[in-house]
Amino acid sequence: MLIVDDVVEDLRVYLAGDESFDLARAHLVVALAMQRAQAIIDPVPWAARAVVLDVAVRGFTAPTGADTEQVGPFSRTFRTPGVFLTDAQRAELLHLAATVAGTSGAFTITPGPRVVRR
Length: 118
What we know:
There is one protein chain. This protein has helices at 4-14, 23-38, 49-61, 87-101; strands spanning 66-71, 74-79. It is mainly α and 118 residues long. It has one domain (4-101). A hairpin with a 2-residue loop joins strand 1 (66-71) and strand 2. Helix 1 (4-14) crosses helix 2 (23-38), helix 1 (4-14) packs across helix 3 (49-61) and helix 2 crosses helix 3. It starts with a helix and ends in a 17-residue tail after the last helix.
């Protein structure tokens, strides 16, 4: 099971945090990322660490959700504020949930009642 403190430490190392690293804010962002992951798979397995860290990094570095793309003289800005799961992250968590449950998620075969003939 994934623990918030482990992801906070990963976040600090990933962002090369020093003494000025905002630990309280990091705990909040990681806790929010864990809540989003728990909506898909509960408890959140250790294998989901990269997804939770990715969500936390995005929430920590761009809390307003501003992201700009520029090609030549043209630019556009995307705004998706908050801590959220992308479609790819949601799909990865669903895949992990199926793996943990022991199913592939492709299909399920439910056998009918057993018929005994005499």
